[in-house]
Write a structure and sequence with these properties.
The complex is a heterodimer of chains A (256) and B (320). Chain A is mainly β and 256 residues long. Chain A is 7% helix and 48% strand. Chain B is α+β, with helices and mostly antiparallel strands and 320 residues long. Chain B is 25% helix and 46% strand. Chain B contains six helices and 16 strands. In chain B, helix 1 packs across helix 3. The longest helix of chain B has 32 residues. Chain B starts with a helix and ends with a strand. Classes of the chains: A mainly beta (256), B alpha+beta (320).
Chain lengths: 256, 320
């Protein structure tokens, strides 16, 4: 009798306990980089990626513990681009076969301070294999607003180059806090091609129904490529990068 | 003349002797018939036939040493009830009812007919062994004796096709399957247990496409009401469901199986009390803590349904 009461009590506790188990059914992540190994191996380990800066020094790609979004490490991209001295570049890149024709590309950034952009400052980039554009396709640039805040601009290198109008006017890029840039990129050679960008989960531009790169080859760069910055030395921290078959979003999880 | 006188005297003596014999025999039978204990066992408001006449006729059919004990053995009180309905009349013996029709209202003949039915009912062996020629039945039987309902089965096995729909999740899901239930007990309260094998189905939770398979098993009590045509019932019990989820469109996927705990209730009705009867039921399952579906990069995509509702229909097989 006592055993029956204990069993009944156990069942009631289990029913009311809100202890539904978690069923981990898999992942749509194709690739991630969290820098927690204090290396760039996630980018460069399979020879499909690169971590580079030019000229080096003063431009640098480093691992850091100064600012991290999760864990202990992040990447620190430093460029020095004074007016009249040309382009400064620091980038993490992935290219070739590991990148699918259709995927979501996500990276988290941290801007320690506002920078005045004289010519351009590219932080997110897709490349193609096409000589007339010097392999460049879409740049997502940081720009300044009249309010003194920083915003984003999409630049299409094809056809001589043009700024693509955003669907959202002057989205503000936060300074002093982590923000996420995510893109959907379907590299189709017909009118099913598409590229879409989100800032912290908010869609800011959608270029659809048009061909993208002339070949299936894809390169994605998380970068700091700039010309004519004031102050000339600019730092961007990068963490929690991912390539996924489904959207990561600002609340997505890329590690167990 | 003396010879004639002797013959008359002898004949008179023989007639007197015969009357004395008949009187003695009649008295002995009438003694049994007028036993006050037996008179109380044959009752009713009927005046045609009167209970005493039926008893008297009965005494001619069964010897006293059998008539008394047989009437006393009848559980009902009175053992025999006579009901005069005008042209028809009824004889009720030990729960058996026989109705006869006699437009002529011949009360003596009615008493004989009633006595034969009573004798055949309370002592069929005696009648079969030495059947007195029954009087020609003046009437036609118009009412069949009522048949007692068969005792309910001690256990029933229900086999049914079932449909289960899960709600309370971001995405609803419906599954078909086969239900098997066992009920043990004839009383109002019975033990009930069952399983519902649902076919695998493709569903989606929080955008994660899944192949879901579920096997709920439950045990509890059934409250049931007997009925010739409809036997409704209600069930309440505890449930444990084996739940298997496999992602079908993720880049890397793995199957996961767990046990859900909850409560189950059902309402149903069985058509008829025979050993093989159709039934239909509605059931509901409450899962207070349904499992979470977790996938990267979405994280917790949602949870499986916390409420399931379904229906089943099939056959109920009684045994024991």
């Amino acid at each position: 009798m006592r055993a029956a009461r204990i069993a009944a009590l156990a069942v009631l506790v289990a029913l009311a306990g809100g202890c539904g188990p978690r069923l981990d059914v898999g992942s749509d992540l194709l690739w991630t980089a969290q820098f927690e190994g204090n290396t760039f191996d996630e980018w460069t380990g399979d020879s499909a990626g690169n971590a580079w800066a030019f000229p080096n020094p003063p431009d640098l790609v480093e691992l850091t513990t100064e600012r991290v979004r999760h864990g202990s490490y992040a990447a620190k991209l430093t460029v020095d681009a004074p007016a009249g001295s040309g382009q400064g570049s620091a980038a993490l890149s992935r290219a070739g076969d590991p990148l699918p024709q259709t995927a979501y590309y996500s990276a988290w950034y941290y801007l320690p301070r506002t920078i005045s952009v004289g010519t351009y400052w590219v932080i997110f980039k897709f490349r193609q294999q096409d000589a007339p554009t010097m392999d460049e396709l879409y740049d997502l640039d940081l720009v300044n607003l009249d309010t003194g805040e920083m915003s984003l601009q999409l630049y299409d290198h094809r056809g001589g180059g043009r700024v693509v109008p955003l669907d959202v006017a002057s989205p503000v890029v936060p300074v002093g806090q982590w923000f996420q840039i995510e893109a959907f990129y379907r590299n189709a050679q017909d009118d099913t091609g598409r590229v879409t960008f989100w800032l912290d989960g908010r869609q800011i531009v959608d270029v659809a129904h048009q061909p993208m790169a002339p070949t299936p080859w894809v390169e994605w760069d998380v970068s700091s490529i700039a010309e004519d910055l004031t102050p000339s030395t600019a730092v961007i921290y990068v963490d929690d990068c991912a390539v996924s078959r489904t959207r990561v979003g600002p609340h997505g999880v890329i590690t167990d | 003349m003396p010879v004639v006188r002797d013959r008359v005297r002898r004949t008179t003596c023989l007639v007197i002797a015969a009357w004395i014999g008949v009187f003695v025999i009649a008295r002995s039978r009438a003694g049994a018939a007028t036993d006050p204990d037996l008179e109380s066992l044959i009752a009713g408001s009927s005046t045609c036939p009167r209970p005493d006449l039926v008893l008297a006729e009965l005494a001619t059919l069964l010897p006293p040493e059998r008539l008394g004990p047989r009437l006393h053995a009848v559980a009902a009180a009175p053992a025999v009830e006579l009901v005069d309905l005008g042209a028809p009349f009824q004889v009720v013996v030990a729960g058996h009812v026989r109705e006869y029709r006699d437009d002529a209202r011949d009360c003596t003949q009615r008493a004989r007919v009633a006595a034969v039915f009573v004798a055949m009912t309370i002592d069929p062996a005696s009648i079969a062994a030495a059947p007195p020629a029954p009087p020609p039945a003046p009437v036609a039987t118009i009412a069949a004796p009522p048949s007692l309902p068969p005792p309910p089965a001690g256990a029933r096995l229900d086999i049914a096709a079932a449909l289960d729909a899960g709600v309370g999740s971001a995405d609803r899901v419906a599954q078909g399957g086969v239900a098997l239930r066992l009920t043990v007990g004839r009383e109002r309260l019975a033990f009930a247990a069952g399983a519902l094998a649902l076919w695998p189905v493709d569903t989606s939770i929080g955008g994660v496409r899944l192949r879901q398979w579920r096997l709920p098993i439950d045990a509890g009590v059934r409250v049931q009401r007997g009925g010739e045509r409809f036997a409704p019932y209600a069930e309440l019990g505890l449930l444990a469901a084996v739940l298997s989820e496999t992602a079908i469109q993720l880049e890397t996927s793995s199957g996961r199986t767990t046990i859900e705990l909850g409560a189950r209730g059902a309402l149903g009705v069985r058509m008829g009390a025979s050993r093989f009867a159709p039934f239909a039921a509605l059931h509901a399952e409450l899962i207070p803590s349904p499992p979470e579906i977790y996938a990267l990069p979405a994280g917790v995509a949602g949870h499986t349904p916390w409420f399931w509702i379904g229906a089943s229909a099939g056959a109920s097989l009684g045994f024991l």
